[in-house]
């Protein structure tokens, strides 16, 4: 018979910390603004003057404006993750990132040159990169092994809801009030998140300072595989942002219809994020990750052959299921493997995700602009197949005892 004290401890570990909801809701407004910008900027830069990129295809420019953000975001995350672990502080990085996001969003409204837009997007990517590993660490500090998938699923659901509805909100505001108004709204949303984070979110800390000792080679290899999986998934998902101007022309549609297509992915992903986290807690992370990768292969090929906006919306919605099946279990498994230094180690996963956001649009823009419209979708499918095989062969989930030892 179990000791009552141990039963009480077990029940405590199975419950989610209410602070998780406060953190997630505090970041919601900034995520709403992020979704607006991701959708609006590739359309806003059409027809802009440029000294450096004059004469380049519009799909290349649309891909570039998305790529520089993802690339600067990806490169900055490992640095900020290590710094956060060394200082054993997270909240200052989140506050700094929110402030940077707000300022740059306001500046977009007063910029009419494509070259300056690229520079601003790079700076904004760095500021957002400061927040990502810190927030992921805070989420993991507020959860246990038995609730980690659920906790990450809830956080990702709230974040995804903001990003998804942001695209629709951006399309509506731009259609009726103009792009400048939309950028001011993004800045106001950033201010709202900044206030909530500053006054209502408490700092979290590791149980002890992070160790400088190297991780086991087997775990290091699994981190590489998880990073590759996230990179491939985001490449296949973000590629669509290079094609927004092309879809607008080919499908004979406008900003609102395109914003629905973009948001369909995120909204469905939001609905499935927490269920996939719960499934990964119960069935294991590896099975769910493999299922998501497999599902996304035919979807990305189909995106190259849509004939109308309805088909685009349906495919993007199914893609939301596939991403939910990969993102939440990957992050939960990475935390299980990471041990104490969550920010620095898990930042390799989040940085790979941002790198996929960077590669997808620019790869699609270059290949579609200079070779063929369909080719980038086939390349994404091959990349997904490679990552699926790597997950099947190379991923081994830690036991509960191993997680307790490392964490």
UniProtKB/TrEMBL annotation:
Cellular-component GO terms for this entry: plasma membrane
One GO MF term, please? transmembrane transporter activity
Which parts of the chain span the membrane according to its record? Answer: 28-46, 58-80, 92-110, 116-140, 152-176, 182-202, 223-244, 256-276, 288-306, 318-342, 354-371, 377-395
Q: Which UniProt keywords apply?
A: Cell membrane, Membrane, Transmembrane, Transmembrane helix, Transport
Q: Which Pfam families does this UniProt record tie to the protein? A: MFS_1 (PF07690)
Q: How does it sit in the membrane?
A: Multi-pass membrane protein
Classify the source by domain of life. Archaea
Please give the SUPFAM superfamilies that the UniProt record associates with this protein.
Answer: MFS general substrate transporter
Q: Where in the cell is it found?
A: Cell membrane
**Does the keyword section mention Ligase?**
no
Q: Does the keyword Transport apply?
A: yes
Which CDD domains does this one have?
MFS_MdtG_SLC18_like (cd17325)
The Major facilitator superfamily (MFS) profile domain extends over 19-399
Read off the InterPro entries from this record. Answer: MFS, MFS_dom, MFS_trans_sf, Sugar_transporter_CS
The name on file for this protein is MFS transporter
Lineage runs: Archaea, Methanobacteriati, Methanobacteriota, Stenosarchaea group, Methanomicrobia
């Amino acid at each position: 018979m179990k000791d009552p004290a141990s039963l009480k401890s077990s029940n405590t570990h199975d419950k989610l910390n209410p602070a998780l909801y406060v953190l997630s809701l505090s970041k919601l407004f900034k995520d709403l603004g992020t979704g607006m910008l991701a959708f609006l900027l590739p359309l806003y830069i059409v027809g802009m003057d440029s000294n450096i990129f004059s004469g380049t295809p519009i799909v290349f420019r649309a891909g570039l404006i998305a790529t520089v953000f993802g690339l600067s975001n990806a490169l900055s995350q490992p640095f900020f993750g290590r710094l956060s672990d060394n200082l054993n502080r997270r909240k200052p990085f989140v506050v700094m990132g929110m402030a940077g996001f707000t300022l740059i969003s306001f500046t977009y409204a007063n910029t009419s040159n494509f070259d300056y837009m690229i520079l601003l997007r790079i700076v904004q990517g760095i500021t957002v990169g400061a927040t990502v590993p810190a927030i992921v660490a805070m989420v993991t500090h507020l959860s246990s092994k038995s609730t980690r998938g659920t906790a990450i699923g809830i956080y990702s659901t709230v974040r995804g809801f903001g990003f998804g509805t942001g695209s629709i909100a951006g399309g509506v505001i731009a259609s009726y009030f103009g792009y400048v108004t939309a950028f001011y709204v993004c800045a106001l949303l950033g201010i709202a998140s900044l206030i909530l984070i500053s006054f209502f979110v408490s700092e979290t800390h590791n149980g002890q300072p992070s160790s400088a000792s190297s991780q086991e080679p087997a775990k290091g290899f699994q981190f590489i595989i998880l990073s590759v999986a996230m990179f491939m998934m985001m490449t296949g998902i973000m590629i669509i942002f290079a094609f927004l101007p092309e879809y607008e022309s080919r499908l004979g549609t406008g900003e609102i219809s395109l914003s629905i297509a973009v948001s369909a992915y995120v909204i469905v992903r939001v609905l499935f994020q927490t269920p996939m986290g719960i499934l990964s807690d119960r069935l294991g992370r590896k099975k769910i990750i493999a299922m998501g990768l497999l599902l996304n292969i035919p979807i990305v090929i189909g995106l190259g052959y849509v004939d109308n906006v309805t088909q685009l919306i349906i495919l993007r919605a199914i893609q939301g299921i596939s991403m939910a099946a990969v993102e939440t279990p990957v992050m939960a498994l990475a935390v299980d493997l990471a041990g104490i230094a969550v920010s620095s180690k898990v930042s390799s996963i989040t940085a790979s995700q941002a790198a996929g956001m960077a590669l997808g649009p620019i790869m699609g823009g270059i290949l579609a602009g200079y070779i063929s419209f369909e080719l980038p979708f086939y390349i994404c499918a091959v990349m997904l197949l490679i990552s699926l095989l790597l997950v099947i062969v190379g991923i081994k989930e830690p036991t509960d005892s191993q997680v307790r030892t490392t964490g």
